[in-house]
Amino acid sequence: MSENWIFAAQLDDLPEDDVIGVAVNGLDIALYRTEEGVFASDNLCSHGNARLSDGFLEDGEIECPLHQGRFCIKTGNALCSPLTQGVTVYPVQIDGEQVYLKLS
Ligand code: FES
Predict the structure, then answer these.
(1) Tens of pLDDT, residues 35-62
(2) Which of 9, 26, 46, 64 is most buried, most CB within 10 Å of its CB?
(3) Ligand 1 binding residues, C-beta < 6 A
(4) Residue 44's closest CA among 35, 53, 36?
């Protein structure tokens, strides 16, 4: 594993079809596990002070718990109002049972 990849979580710590919040290198990251794989984004909603890991994950979209804005977990794109901008997403690599992110 190159030094650009940073350990984020054990795969076992990620429930299927759910999202958790983790601190990685001082960043608040949302980690999503779906049947398509594991995805990562900034955890803070781009619209306000809400954590996406407290939201609702369905069909590859995360719904913010505060005003129900939805983001694509693969691209970070904002999918509906009141969102006007997306969130940053990060590449994910699974090595055995460990989840790594590339933050830069
Ligand atoms: Fe997330 Fe408003 S804080 S939609």
Answers:
(1) 999 999 999 999 999 999 999 999 999 9
(2) 64
(3) 45, 47-48, 50, 64, 66-67, 69, 82-83
(4) 53
